[in-house]
Amino acid sequence: MAEKHFKYVIVGGGVAAGYAAREFARLGVNPGELAIISKEAVAPYERPALSKAYLFPQGSARLPGFHVCVGSGGERLLPEWYTEKGIELILSTEIVKADLASKALVSSSGEIFKYDTLIIATGSTVIKLSDFGVKGADAKGIFYLREIDDADQLVEAIQAKKGGKAVIVGGGYIGLELGATLQINDLDVTMVYPEPWCMPRLFTSGIAAFYEGYYANKGIKIVKGTVAVGFDSDSNGEVTAVNLKDGRTLEADVVVVGVGGRPLTTLFKGQVDEEKGGIKTDAFFKTSVPDVYAVGDVATFPLKLYSELRRVEHVDHARKSAEQAVKAIKASEGVGSVEEYDYLPYFYSRAFNLSWQFYGDNVGETVLFGDTDPASAKPKFGSYWIKDGRVVGAFLEAGTPEENQAIARVARLQPPVDSLDQLAADGLAFASKI
Ligand code: FAD
User: Fold this and answer.
1) Atom 34, ligand 1: which residue's CA is nearest?
2) Residues 255 and 266 placed together within one structural domain of the fold
3) Which of 27, 196, 228, 244 has the fewest beta carbons under 10 Å from its own?
Protein backbone atom coordinates (compact mmCIF):
# COMPACT_ATOMS: atom_id res chain seq x y z
CA MET A 1 0.00 0.00 0.00
CA ALA A 2 1.07 3.58 -0.73
CA GLU A 3 3.01 5.25 2.07
CA LYS A 4 3.68 8.96 2.34
CA HIS A 5 5.80 10.82 4.84
CA PHE A 6 5.44 14.41 6.01
CA LYS A 7 7.31 16.42 8.60
CA TYR A 8 3.97 17.70 9.96
CA VAL A 9 0.54 16.12 9.61
CA ILE A 10 -2.72 17.67 10.78
CA VAL A 11 -5.48 15.08 11.04
CA GLY A 12 -8.83 16.80 10.56
CA GLY A 13 -9.43 19.63 8.11
CA GLY A 14 -11.74 22.00 10.00
CA VAL A 15 -11.34 25.38 11.63
CA ALA A 16 -8.26 24.54 13.70
CA ALA A 17 -6.48 22.93 10.72
CA GLY A 18 -6.98 26.05 8.59
CA TYR A 19 -5.66 28.42 11.23
CA ALA A 20 -2.74 26.09 11.93
CA ALA A 21 -1.85 26.07 8.23
CA ARG A 22 -1.80 29.86 8.15
CA GLU A 23 0.45 29.97 11.22
CA PHE A 24 2.83 27.41 9.68
CA ALA A 25 2.98 29.56 6.54
CA ARG A 26 3.63 32.67 8.62
CA LEU A 27 6.46 31.08 10.59
CA GLY A 28 7.88 29.26 7.59
CA VAL A 29 7.13 25.87 6.13
CA ASN A 30 8.86 24.32 3.14
CA PRO A 31 6.87 22.84 0.26
CA GLY A 32 6.01 19.21 0.98
CA GLU A 33 6.53 19.46 4.74
CA LEU A 34 2.88 19.87 5.83
CA ALA A 35 -0.21 17.80 5.03
CA ILE A 36 -3.80 18.24 6.18
CA ILE A 37 -5.84 15.04 6.01
CA SER A 38 -9.59 15.58 6.06
CA LYS A 39 -12.70 13.44 5.80
CA GLU A 40 -14.47 16.40 4.22
CA ALA A 41 -14.18 17.10 0.48
CA VAL A 42 -13.36 20.80 0.85
CA ALA A 43 -10.55 22.97 2.21
CA PRO A 44 -10.92 24.22 5.82
CA TYR A 45 -13.83 26.63 6.30
CA GLU A 46 -15.52 28.63 9.04
CA ARG A 47 -17.91 25.97 10.37
CA PRO A 48 -20.25 28.40 12.26
CA ALA A 49 -21.52 29.68 8.89
CA LEU A 50 -23.33 26.36 8.35
CA SER A 51 -26.09 27.15 10.85
CA LYS A 52 -26.30 30.82 9.88
CA ALA A 53 -25.83 32.43 6.45
CA TYR A 54 -25.46 29.05 4.68
CA LEU A 55 -29.17 28.45 5.29
CA PHE A 56 -30.45 31.91 4.31
CA PRO A 57 -33.09 31.85 1.57
CA GLN A 58 -31.41 34.81 -0.14
CA GLY A 59 -27.79 35.89 -0.28
CA SER A 60 -26.75 32.60 1.28
CA ALA A 61 -23.09 32.01 2.07
CA ARG A 62 -21.41 29.45 -0.17
CA LEU A 63 -17.84 28.27 -0.56
CA PRO A 64 -15.38 29.66 -1.45
CA GLY A 65 -16.88 32.64 0.42
CA PHE A 66 -16.23 31.38 3.94
CA HIS A 67 -13.01 29.43 3.83
CA VAL A 68 -10.76 30.22 6.78
CA CYS A 69 -9.54 32.69 7.84
CA VAL A 70 -12.33 35.14 7.00
CA GLY A 71 -14.13 34.50 10.29
CA SER A 72 -11.44 36.35 12.21
CA GLY A 73 -11.08 39.03 9.56
CA GLY A 74 -8.03 37.45 7.93
CA GLU A 75 -7.08 36.48 4.38
CA ARG A 76 -9.30 33.79 2.84
CA LEU A 77 -7.31 30.62 2.27
CA LEU A 78 -8.62 29.23 -1.01
CA PRO A 79 -7.54 25.75 -2.15
CA GLU A 80 -4.96 27.47 -4.43
CA TRP A 81 -3.33 29.05 -1.38
CA TYR A 82 -2.38 25.59 -0.07
CA THR A 83 -1.01 24.65 -3.50
CA GLU A 84 1.08 27.84 -3.66
CA LYS A 85 2.53 27.17 -0.21
CA GLY A 86 3.24 23.53 -1.03
CA ILE A 87 0.85 22.38 1.71
CA GLU A 88 -0.87 19.12 0.76
CA LEU A 89 -4.63 19.06 1.25
CA ILE A 90 -5.54 15.40 1.33
CA LEU A 91 -9.34 15.60 1.16
CA SER A 92 -12.18 13.03 1.26
CA THR A 93 -9.78 10.86 3.25
CA GLU A 94 -10.84 9.39 6.56
CA ILE A 95 -8.20 8.18 8.96
CA VAL A 96 -9.43 4.96 10.52
CA LYS A 97 -6.34 3.94 12.48
CA ALA A 98 -3.66 5.86 14.31
CA ASP A 99 -0.54 4.28 15.76
CA LEU A 100 1.19 6.97 17.76
CA ALA A 101 4.07 4.65 18.71
CA SER A 102 5.12 4.10 15.09
CA LYS A 103 3.97 7.61 14.03
CA ALA A 104 1.61 6.27 11.38
CA LEU A 105 -1.96 6.98 10.29
CA VAL A 106 -3.97 4.67 8.04
CA SER A 107 -6.86 5.82 5.83
CA SER A 108 -10.06 3.88 5.04
CA SER A 109 -8.57 2.98 1.66
CA GLY A 110 -5.41 1.65 3.32
CA GLU A 111 -3.03 4.54 2.57
CA ILE A 112 -0.36 5.03 5.21
CA PHE A 113 0.73 8.50 6.31
CA LYS A 114 3.86 8.80 8.45
CA TYR A 115 4.77 11.97 10.30
CA ASP A 116 7.42 13.47 12.54
CA THR A 117 4.92 15.74 14.32
CA LEU A 118 1.16 15.22 14.50
CA ILE A 119 -1.57 17.75 15.27
CA ILE A 120 -4.88 16.14 16.19
CA ALA A 121 -7.72 18.43 15.03
CA THR A 122 -10.58 16.00 14.53
CA GLY A 123 -13.20 18.21 16.22
CA SER A 124 -16.54 16.85 17.34
CA THR A 125 -19.33 14.75 15.98
CA VAL A 126 -23.02 15.11 16.68
CA ILE A 127 -24.83 13.05 19.28
CA LYS A 128 -27.62 11.20 17.45
CA LEU A 129 -31.00 10.24 18.86
CA SER A 130 -30.48 6.77 17.39
CA ASP A 131 -27.52 6.48 19.83
CA PHE A 132 -30.16 6.36 22.60
CA GLY A 133 -32.44 3.99 20.70
CA VAL A 134 -35.16 6.63 20.07
CA LYS A 135 -37.78 4.85 17.97
CA GLY A 136 -37.93 5.85 14.29
CA ALA A 137 -34.92 8.18 14.65
CA ASP A 138 -33.42 6.99 11.35
CA ALA A 139 -36.43 8.19 9.28
CA LYS A 140 -35.73 10.36 6.23
CA GLY A 141 -36.16 14.06 6.91
CA ILE A 142 -34.38 14.00 10.29
CA PHE A 143 -31.23 16.10 10.05
CA TYR A 144 -28.13 16.81 12.09
CA LEU A 145 -25.67 19.57 11.31
CA ARG A 146 -21.92 19.28 11.59
CA GLU A 147 -20.34 19.27 8.14
CA ILE A 148 -21.01 20.93 4.82
CA ASP A 149 -22.59 17.76 3.38
CA ASP A 150 -25.15 17.84 6.23
CA ALA A 151 -25.88 21.49 5.44
CA ASP A 152 -26.39 20.72 1.73
CA GLN A 153 -28.91 18.00 2.54
CA LEU A 154 -30.72 20.34 4.91
CA VAL A 155 -30.86 23.11 2.28
CA GLU A 156 -32.45 20.65 -0.16
CA ALA A 157 -35.07 19.62 2.42
CA ILE A 158 -35.83 23.23 3.37
CA GLN A 159 -36.49 24.04 -0.29
CA ALA A 160 -38.60 20.93 -0.83
CA LYS A 161 -40.72 21.46 2.29
CA LYS A 162 -41.39 25.24 2.05
CA GLY A 163 -44.56 26.13 3.92
CA GLY A 164 -44.36 22.85 5.84
CA LYS A 165 -43.81 22.11 9.48
CA ALA A 166 -40.37 21.94 11.08
CA VAL A 167 -39.57 20.60 14.51
CA ILE A 168 -36.27 21.49 16.15
CA VAL A 169 -35.18 19.05 18.84
CA GLY A 170 -32.83 20.79 21.27
CA GLY A 171 -32.64 24.32 22.67
CA GLY A 172 -28.91 24.99 22.53
CA TYR A 173 -26.87 26.99 19.96
CA ILE A 174 -27.84 24.82 17.03
CA GLY A 175 -31.51 24.68 18.05
CA LEU A 176 -31.80 28.45 18.42
CA GLU A 177 -29.91 29.26 15.22
CA LEU A 178 -31.78 26.62 13.22
CA GLY A 179 -35.15 27.68 14.67
CA ALA A 180 -34.49 31.17 13.28
CA THR A 181 -33.17 30.12 9.86
CA LEU A 182 -36.02 27.67 9.26
CA GLN A 183 -38.57 30.32 10.21
CA ILE A 184 -36.93 32.74 7.75
CA ASN A 185 -37.29 29.98 5.14
CA ASP A 186 -41.09 29.95 5.60
CA LEU A 187 -41.35 26.84 7.67
CA ASP A 188 -43.75 26.66 10.59
CA VAL A 189 -41.28 26.03 13.44
CA THR A 190 -41.77 24.30 16.77
CA MET A 191 -38.83 23.89 19.14
CA VAL A 192 -38.78 21.24 21.84
CA TYR A 193 -36.33 20.84 24.70
CA PRO A 194 -36.38 19.29 28.17
CA GLU A 195 -34.88 22.15 30.16
CA PRO A 196 -36.91 24.95 31.78
CA TRP A 197 -35.31 27.47 29.39
CA CYS A 198 -33.11 27.57 26.26
CA MET A 199 -29.29 27.41 26.40
CA PRO A 200 -29.27 26.59 30.11
CA ARG A 201 -25.53 25.90 30.06
CA LEU A 202 -24.93 29.61 29.51
CA PHE A 203 -28.16 31.60 29.67
CA THR A 204 -29.76 32.66 32.95
CA SER A 205 -33.54 32.45 33.08
CA GLY A 206 -33.63 36.23 32.53
CA ILE A 207 -31.51 36.08 29.36
CA ALA A 208 -33.46 33.10 28.04
CA ALA A 209 -36.82 34.81 28.66
CA PHE A 210 -35.82 37.51 26.18
CA TYR A 211 -34.90 35.06 23.38
CA GLU A 212 -37.91 32.82 23.99
CA GLY A 213 -40.18 35.88 23.90
CA TYR A 214 -38.52 37.14 20.72
CA TYR A 215 -38.91 33.75 19.02
CA ALA A 216 -42.56 33.53 20.13
CA ASN A 217 -43.17 36.96 18.57
CA LYS A 218 -41.79 35.53 15.31
CA GLY A 219 -44.42 32.77 15.49
CA ILE A 220 -42.07 30.03 16.72
CA LYS A 221 -43.73 27.67 19.16
CA ILE A 222 -41.66 26.46 22.08
CA VAL A 223 -42.42 23.23 23.94
CA LYS A 224 -40.34 22.88 27.12
CA GLY A 225 -39.91 20.25 29.78
CA THR A 226 -40.24 17.21 27.53
CA VAL A 227 -38.23 15.21 25.00
CA ALA A 228 -38.70 13.41 21.70
CA VAL A 229 -39.19 9.72 22.37
CA GLY A 230 -40.12 8.56 18.87
CA PHE A 231 -40.80 9.52 15.27
CA ASP A 232 -43.56 8.42 12.89
CA SER A 233 -42.90 8.08 9.19
CA ASP A 234 -44.91 7.39 6.04
CA SER A 235 -44.62 4.48 3.60
CA ASN A 236 -41.62 6.20 1.94
CA GLY A 237 -39.81 6.31 5.24
CA GLU A 238 -40.22 10.11 5.46
CA VAL A 239 -40.74 11.57 8.92
CA THR A 240 -44.32 12.78 9.59
CA ALA A 241 -44.44 13.37 13.35
CA VAL A 242 -42.44 13.68 16.55
CA ASN A 243 -43.81 11.89 19.59
CA LEU A 244 -43.05 13.56 22.90
CA LYS A 245 -42.60 11.99 26.29
CA ASP A 246 -45.48 14.03 27.70
CA GLY A 247 -47.84 12.24 25.26
CA ARG A 248 -48.13 15.04 22.72
CA THR A 249 -47.44 14.58 19.01
CA LEU A 250 -45.99 17.30 16.78
CA GLU A 251 -46.54 17.04 13.02
CA ALA A 252 -43.27 17.40 11.11
CA ASP A 253 -42.10 17.57 7.50
CA VAL A 254 -38.54 18.34 8.56
CA VAL A 255 -36.81 17.64 11.88
CA VAL A 256 -33.48 19.10 12.91
CA VAL A 257 -31.79 17.62 15.95
CA GLY A 258 -29.22 19.59 17.91
CA VAL A 259 -28.66 17.77 21.16
CA GLY A 260 -24.94 18.23 21.54
CA GLY A 261 -21.60 16.96 20.36
CA ARG A 262 -18.90 14.55 21.36
CA PRO A 263 -15.17 15.08 20.71
CA LEU A 264 -13.69 12.69 18.16
CA THR A 265 -10.94 11.06 20.19
CA THR A 266 -11.65 7.37 19.53
CA LEU A 267 -8.69 6.93 17.14
CA PHE A 268 -6.32 7.73 19.98
CA LYS A 269 -8.00 5.93 22.89
CA GLY A 270 -5.53 4.16 25.14
CA GLN A 271 -2.55 5.80 23.42
CA VAL A 272 -2.73 9.26 24.94
CA ASP A 273 -3.84 10.71 28.30
CA GLU A 274 -7.42 11.93 28.39
CA GLU A 275 -9.26 14.24 30.76
CA LYS A 276 -12.82 15.59 30.89
CA GLY A 277 -13.72 13.74 27.70
CA GLY A 278 -10.89 15.23 25.64
CA ILE A 279 -7.19 14.72 24.95
CA LYS A 280 -5.18 16.19 27.81
CA THR A 281 -2.64 18.82 26.81
CA ASP A 282 -0.33 21.33 28.42
CA ALA A 283 -0.45 25.09 27.81
CA PHE A 284 1.25 24.51 24.45
CA PHE A 285 -1.28 21.85 23.34
CA LYS A 286 1.32 19.10 23.68
CA THR A 287 -0.26 15.79 24.61
CA SER A 288 1.24 13.08 26.82
CA VAL A 289 2.83 11.54 23.69
CA PRO A 290 6.01 13.20 22.35
CA ASP A 291 5.52 15.09 19.06
CA VAL A 292 1.73 14.82 19.26
CA TYR A 293 -0.39 17.93 19.76
CA ALA A 294 -4.19 18.25 20.10
CA VAL A 295 -6.14 21.44 19.36
CA GLY A 296 -9.69 22.75 19.02
CA ASP A 297 -12.71 20.81 20.28
CA VAL A 298 -10.71 17.69 21.22
CA ALA A 299 -8.21 19.36 23.56
CA THR A 300 -8.59 19.53 27.36
CA PHE A 301 -6.10 22.26 28.25
CA PRO A 302 -5.12 24.35 31.28
CA LEU A 303 -7.33 27.44 31.37
CA LYS A 304 -4.88 29.62 33.22
CA LEU A 305 -7.37 32.33 34.21
CA TYR A 306 -9.42 29.81 36.21
CA SER A 307 -6.56 27.42 37.19
CA GLU A 308 -8.54 24.55 35.76
CA LEU A 309 -8.40 22.03 32.92
CA ARG A 310 -11.19 22.66 30.44
CA ARG A 311 -12.38 21.58 27.04
CA VAL A 312 -13.94 24.33 24.92
CA GLU A 313 -16.12 23.64 21.86
CA HIS A 314 -16.04 27.07 20.27
CA VAL A 315 -14.54 28.50 17.15
CA ASP A 316 -12.42 31.23 18.79
CA HIS A 317 -10.56 28.64 20.86
CA ALA A 318 -10.18 26.37 17.80
CA ARG A 319 -8.42 29.21 16.00
CA LYS A 320 -6.24 30.31 18.90
CA SER A 321 -5.25 26.84 20.12
CA ALA A 322 -4.19 25.92 16.57
CA GLU A 323 -1.97 28.99 16.34
CA GLN A 324 -0.55 28.29 19.79
CA ALA A 325 0.38 24.70 18.90
CA VAL A 326 2.13 25.76 15.71
CA LYS A 327 4.03 28.50 17.56
CA ALA A 328 5.12 25.87 20.09
CA ILE A 329 6.22 23.43 17.37
CA LYS A 330 8.22 26.12 15.57
CA ALA A 331 9.68 27.45 18.84
CA SER A 332 10.93 23.93 19.59
CA GLU A 333 12.80 24.14 16.27
CA GLY A 334 14.29 27.49 17.29
CA VAL A 335 11.90 29.65 15.23
CA GLY A 336 10.19 32.40 17.21
CA SER A 337 8.97 32.00 20.75
CA VAL A 338 5.80 31.05 22.54
CA GLU A 339 4.15 31.96 25.83
CA GLU A 340 1.76 29.90 27.92
CA TYR A 341 -1.80 29.83 26.53
CA ASP A 342 -3.87 32.30 28.51
CA TYR A 343 -7.33 32.01 27.06
CA LEU A 344 -10.33 34.17 27.85
CA PRO A 345 -13.44 32.13 26.95
CA TYR A 346 -15.45 33.86 24.22
CA PHE A 347 -18.72 32.57 22.79
CA TYR A 348 -21.15 34.24 20.39
CA SER A 349 -24.22 33.55 18.36
CA ARG A 350 -26.37 35.29 15.78
CA ALA A 351 -29.97 34.67 14.78
CA PHE A 352 -32.59 36.91 13.15
CA ASN A 353 -31.29 40.46 13.77
CA LEU A 354 -29.92 39.41 17.13
CA SER A 355 -26.28 39.03 18.02
CA TRP A 356 -24.76 38.33 21.41
CA GLN A 357 -21.30 37.88 22.82
CA PHE A 358 -20.16 36.35 26.09
CA TYR A 359 -16.75 36.51 27.73
CA GLY A 360 -15.38 34.84 30.82
CA ASP A 361 -16.95 32.37 33.18
CA ASN A 362 -20.67 31.94 33.88
CA VAL A 363 -20.42 31.09 37.57
CA GLY A 364 -21.71 32.76 40.73
CA GLU A 365 -24.49 35.29 41.17
CA THR A 366 -25.93 37.20 38.22
CA VAL A 367 -27.40 40.59 37.50
CA LEU A 368 -29.40 41.47 34.40
CA PHE A 369 -29.37 45.01 33.00
CA GLY A 370 -30.79 46.98 30.09
CA ASP A 371 -33.87 46.62 27.91
CA THR A 372 -34.95 42.99 27.97
CA ASP A 373 -38.33 43.52 26.34
CA PRO A 374 -38.48 41.19 23.31
CA ALA A 375 -41.01 43.53 21.69
CA SER A 376 -38.64 46.57 21.82
CA ALA A 377 -37.65 48.06 18.48
CA LYS A 378 -33.97 47.86 19.48
CA PRO A 379 -33.55 45.57 22.46
CA LYS A 380 -30.18 45.84 24.17
CA PHE A 381 -29.32 44.15 27.42
CA GLY A 382 -26.69 42.17 29.23
CA SER A 383 -25.76 40.19 32.28
CA TYR A 384 -22.81 40.00 34.62
CA TRP A 385 -21.69 36.98 36.64
CA ILE A 386 -20.16 37.75 40.02
CA LYS A 387 -18.05 35.37 42.07
CA ASP A 388 -16.27 36.19 45.36
CA GLY A 389 -17.12 39.87 44.91
CA ARG A 390 -15.63 40.12 41.42
CA VAL A 391 -17.23 40.23 37.99
CA VAL A 392 -16.02 37.07 36.20
CA GLY A 393 -18.32 36.90 33.19
CA ALA A 394 -20.27 39.27 30.97
CA PHE A 395 -22.93 38.82 28.29
CA LEU A 396 -24.20 41.47 25.89
CA GLU A 397 -26.93 41.44 23.26
CA ALA A 398 -26.63 43.99 20.45
CA GLY A 399 -23.28 45.41 21.60
CA THR A 400 -21.16 47.64 19.37
CA PRO A 401 -17.57 46.45 18.76
CA GLU A 402 -16.35 48.89 21.46
CA GLU A 403 -18.96 47.69 23.96
CA ASN A 404 -18.08 44.06 23.26
CA GLN A 405 -14.43 44.93 23.88
CA ALA A 406 -15.47 46.55 27.15
CA ILE A 407 -17.23 43.41 28.43
CA ALA A 408 -14.24 41.32 27.33
CA ARG A 409 -11.98 43.60 29.37
CA VAL A 410 -14.22 43.19 32.42
CA ALA A 411 -14.13 39.40 32.13
CA ARG A 412 -10.34 39.46 31.83
CA LEU A 413 -9.64 41.95 34.63
CA GLN A 414 -12.36 40.72 37.03
CA PRO A 415 -12.99 44.07 38.78
CA PRO A 416 -14.48 44.03 42.29
CA VAL A 417 -18.10 45.09 42.92
CA ASP A 418 -19.58 46.32 46.19
CA SER A 419 -23.26 46.30 45.37
CA LEU A 420 -25.12 44.09 42.92
CA ASP A 421 -28.00 46.61 42.84
CA GLN A 422 -25.58 49.35 41.85
CA LEU A 423 -24.04 47.07 39.21
CA ALA A 424 -27.49 46.38 37.75
CA ALA A 425 -28.26 50.11 37.74
CA ASP A 426 -24.91 50.98 36.09
CA GLY A 427 -25.33 48.22 33.50
CA LEU A 428 -23.05 48.64 30.52
CA ALA A 429 -21.58 51.86 31.96
CA PHE A 430 -19.78 49.68 34.54
CA ALA A 431 -17.92 47.84 31.76
CA SER A 432 -17.26 50.98 29.74
CA LYS A 433 -15.45 52.59 32.73
CA ILE A 434 -13.02 49.70 33.16
P1 FAD B 1 -13.91 20.99 13.22
O2 FAD B 1 -14.01 22.36 12.67
O3 FAD B 1 -15.16 20.23 13.49
O4 FAD B 1 -13.02 20.14 12.22
C5 FAD B 1 -12.77 18.77 12.39
C6 FAD B 1 -12.45 18.18 11.04
O7 FAD B 1 -11.87 16.91 11.22
C8 FAD B 1 -13.67 17.96 10.14
O9 FAD B 1 -13.38 18.42 8.87
C10 FAD B 1 -13.85 16.45 10.18
O11 FAD B 1 -14.44 15.95 9.00
C12 FAD B 1 -12.41 16.00 10.29
N13 FAD B 1 -12.23 14.66 10.80
C14 FAD B 1 -12.73 14.14 11.92
N15 FAD B 1 -12.32 12.86 12.09
C16 FAD B 1 -11.53 12.58 11.03
C17 FAD B 1 -10.82 11.41 10.62
N18 FAD B 1 -10.84 10.31 11.33
N19 FAD B 1 -10.12 11.48 9.47
C20 FAD B 1 -10.10 12.62 8.74
N21 FAD B 1 -10.75 13.75 9.08
C22 FAD B 1 -11.46 13.72 10.22
N23 FAD B 1 -18.71 28.01 17.71
C24 FAD B 1 -18.81 29.31 18.09
O25 FAD B 1 -17.99 29.77 18.88
N26 FAD B 1 -19.81 30.13 17.61
C27 FAD B 1 -20.73 29.66 16.74
O28 FAD B 1 -21.62 30.41 16.33
C29 FAD B 1 -20.67 28.30 16.33
N30 FAD B 1 -21.55 27.81 15.43
C31 FAD B 1 -21.47 26.50 15.05
C32 FAD B 1 -22.39 26.02 14.13
C33 FAD B 1 -22.33 24.69 13.71
C34 FAD B 1 -23.32 24.18 12.72
C35 FAD B 1 -21.34 23.83 14.25
C36 FAD B 1 -21.29 22.38 13.83
C37 FAD B 1 -20.41 24.32 15.16
C38 FAD B 1 -20.46 25.65 15.56
N39 FAD B 1 -19.54 26.18 16.47
C40 FAD B 1 -19.62 27.49 16.85
C41 FAD B 1 -18.46 25.35 17.02
C42 FAD B 1 -17.20 25.47 16.19
O43 FAD B 1 -17.50 25.38 14.82
C44 FAD B 1 -16.21 24.38 16.59
O45 FAD B 1 -15.87 24.59 17.94
C46 FAD B 1 -14.96 24.40 15.71
O47 FAD B 1 -15.28 24.13 14.38
C48 FAD B 1 -13.95 23.38 16.22
O49 FAD B 1 -12.86 23.34 15.35
P50 FAD B 1 -12.00 22.00 15.15
O51 FAD B 1 -11.02 22.30 14.10
O52 FAD B 1 -11.60 21.49 16.47
O53 FAD B 1 -13.06 20.94 14.59
Assistant:
1) 51
2) no
3) 196
Query: Packing angle between helix 315-332 and helix 15-27, nearest 10 degrees?
Result: 30
Closest residue by Cα to residue 141 from 253, 63, 246: 253
**ipTM confidence score:** 0.99
List the residue whose alpha carbon is closest to atom 12 of ligand 1: 12
| Closest ligand 1 atom, residue 349 Cα | 28
CB 198, CB 177: distance < 8 Å = no
- Quick one: pLDDT band at residue 2, thresholds 50, 70, 90? confident
Listed in sequence order, the residues at least 6 apart from 35 whose beta carbon sits closer than 8 Å to its beta carbon are: 4, 6, 8, 9, 10, 87, 88, 89, 90, 113
Kindly list the protein residues whose Cβ atom lies closer than 6 A to any atom of ligand 1.
Answer: 11-17, 37-40, 47-48, 50-51, 94-95, 121-124, 145-147, 173-174, 264, 267, 296-297, 313-316, 318, 347-349
Residue-averaged pLDDT of the chain: 97
121 & 266 share domain: yes
Instruction: Could you list the beta-strand ranges (E) of 237-351.
Output: 239-244, 249-251, 254-257, 261-263, 274-275, 278-280, 292-294, 299-303, 308-311, 346-351
Q: Which of 9, 10, 15, 42 to mutate to test the pocket of ligand 1 (most atoms within 8 A of CB)?
A: 15
Tell me the residue range of the domain where 372 lies: 353-433
Distance 247 CA to ligand 1 centre (A): 35
As a whole number, mean pLDDT of residues 196-217 equals 98
Is 47 inside a domain boundary?
yes
pLDDT band of residue 1 (cuts 50, 70, 90) is low
State the DSSP string of 47-76: GGGGGTGGG-SSS---TTTTBTTGGGT---
Q: Do residues 232 and 271 both lie within one domain?
A: no
